[in-house]
């Protein structure tokens, strides 16, 4: 690789690195909604951003009517209400969690109780209170290109689906670090709503790419008088620390994309793409005829997980790119470079090392390079071609195009993207992982600045 190319690539990589870090801080958001007044009058207008006390009702075997009722905020001085609260605690069941496709009960991993949504109803609506609009603004940036068109030619809204009521009680309710299992390819996140009721501990910690956000609702003086909430991308690791006093009562919602809702919502913070240092670093490289003079591909592995190997998941991309992925996509798109989300075969785990290398004649120094195997998104490639423990060239060739990609970041989230037969001691089926990545087509120096005429991948 020429030294100019190396210098320019390093400059882009460094800038891209800090850009991803800065944009990676958008992975969770939260808020507080005070509860005021006592109005139960239908049609009484609630002032914006404020809600009235609300009731939870549940199927109760203790109640003569078959229905238990508790009003939030819970008043600890009201003996009747405290009795209702005790009944609720007794009638909740142990909460399981998903592990390798199974529902598992294991108190060393999660100690909490739950009511399924079919067993309760609650007079609380996150849409009415603006929570869902806020999530759409922050977590779905709906990036726009220069001409104002939405990326992926669609705008996305948020649909929140009530999932469970959970109680994490003292002395030791908790949920160890995990990621949530998406319930469909359209699920992108989770919303947790903490109902007003005294407790301590039980901090929710959400992590992504070296950043972490802590929601310590129990420590807030508003814990008794406000609804507090947090939403985050499903692929972000999170945990609930031990509750040391009281009961932490939450509603959880699964968050889904809705597609093509026009211009009604989603006009969240728009980035001024052209003023970004990353934009000028790439422009500088493109202006230099010695940078990738014969054209080629730049690759940026996605920082978030996507359902990139299913048809439904792939149909949503690139419109549903999250946080920093959408930001990076927008920068390259604003430079009028052809950029696509692609499925990349895992070539990092020594599978192809040494076997599949070639010499790049265009470089003065003959250096060995790894080829990347790239394909459109949306399906698991199944081949009956057999291999030994390690996949052979002919298997890999069935996956897609072998391309020389200049990678700027490391892979992160793997999906099974290809399966093939194995022989050896025992015949079987082997899975090869794929990663979702942004692949940018850099035109030859001679035609840069004009519309790219580069061919796209198959
Ligand atoms: O209660 C919380 O803050 C988070 C709960 C959670 O992670 C879950 O239900 O999957
Ligand atoms: Fe979770």
Relevant terms:
single chain; 458 residues; alpha+beta; Jelly Rolls; 8-stranded mixed sheet; 17% helix; elongated; binds 2-oxoglutaric acid; binds fe (ii) ion; oxidoreductase activity; metal-binding
Number of strands: 28
Main β-sheet description: 8 strands, antiparallel
Terminal CA distance: 27 Å
What CATH calls the topology of the largest domain is Jelly Rolls
Write the CATH architecture name of the largest domain. Answer: Sandwich
Bound molecules: 2-oxoglutaric acid, fe (ii) ion
The CATH class name of the largest domain reads Mainly Beta
Principal-axes geometry comes out as elongated
Mean pLDDT figure? 82
- In the predicted model, the low-confidence regions spanning at least 5 consecutive residues are 262-269, 349-368, 450-458
Structural class: alpha+beta
Specify the number of helices: 7
Radius of gyration: 26 Å
Q: How many domains, in number, for the residues?
A: 2
Secondary structure: helix percent:
10-25%
Strand content: 35-45%
Keywords: Iron, Metal-binding, Oxidoreductase
Domain Fe2OG dioxygenase: 154-259
Organism: Paraphaeosphaeria sporulosa
Protein name: Fe2OG dioxygenase domain-containing protein
């Amino acid at each position: 690789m020429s030294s100019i190319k190396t210098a320019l690539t390093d400059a882009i990589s460094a800038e891209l690195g800090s850009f991803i870090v800065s944009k990676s801080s958008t992975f969770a958001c939260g808020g507080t909604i005070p509860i005021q007044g006592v109005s139960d009058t239908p049609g009484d207008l609630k002032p914006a951003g404020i809600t009235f006390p609300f009731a939870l009702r549940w199927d109760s075997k203790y109640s003569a009517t078959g229905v238990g009722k508790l009003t939030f905020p819970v008043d600890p001085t009201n003996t009747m209400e405290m009795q209702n609260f005790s009944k609720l605690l007794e009638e909740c069941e142990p909460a399981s969690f998903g592990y390798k496709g199974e529902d598992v009960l294991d108190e060393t991993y999660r100690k909490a109780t739950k009511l399924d949504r079919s067993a309760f109803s609650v007079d609380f609506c996150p849409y009415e209170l603006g929570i869902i609009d806020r999530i759409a603004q922050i977590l779905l940036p709906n990036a726009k290109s220069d001409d104002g068109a939405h990326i992926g030619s669609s705008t996305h809204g948020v649909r929140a689906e009530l999932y469970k009521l959970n109680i994490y009680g003292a002395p030791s309710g908790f949920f160890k670090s995990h990621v949530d299992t998406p319930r469909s390819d359209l699920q992108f996140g989770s919303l947790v709503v903490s109902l007003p009721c005294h407790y301590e501990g039980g901090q929710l910690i959400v992590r992504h790419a070296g950043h972490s956000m802590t929601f310590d609702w129990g420590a807030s003086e508003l814990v008794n008088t406000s609804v507090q909430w947090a939403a985050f991308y499903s692929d972000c690791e999170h945990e609930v620390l031990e509750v040391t006093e009281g009961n932490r009562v939450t509603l959880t919602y699964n968050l889904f994309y809705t597609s093509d809702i026009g211009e009604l919502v989603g006009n969240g913070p728009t980035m001024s793409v052209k003023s970004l240092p990353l934009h000028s670093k790439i422009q500088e490289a493109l202006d230099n005829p010695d940078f990738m003079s014969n054209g080629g591909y730049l690759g940026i592995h996605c920082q978030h997980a996507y359902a990139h190997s299913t048809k439904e998941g792939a149909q949503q991309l690139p419109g549903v790119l999250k946080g920093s992925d959408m930001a990076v996509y927008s920068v390259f798109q604003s430079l009028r470079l052809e950029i696509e989300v692609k499925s990349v075969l895992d070539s990092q785990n020594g599978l192809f090392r040494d076997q599949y290398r070639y010499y790049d004649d265009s470089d003065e120094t003959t250096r060995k390079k790894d080829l990347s195997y790239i394909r459109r998104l949306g399906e698991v490639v199944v081949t009956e071609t057999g291999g030994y423990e390690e996949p052979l060239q002919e298997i890999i060739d069935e996956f897609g195009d072998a391309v020389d990609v200049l990678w700027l970041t490391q892979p992160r989230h793997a999906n099974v993207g290809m399966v093939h037969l194995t022989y050896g001691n025992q015949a079987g089926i082997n899975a090869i992982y794929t990663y979702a990545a942004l692949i940018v087509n850099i035109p030859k120096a001679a035609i840069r600045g004009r519309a790219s005429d580069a061919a796209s991948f198959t």
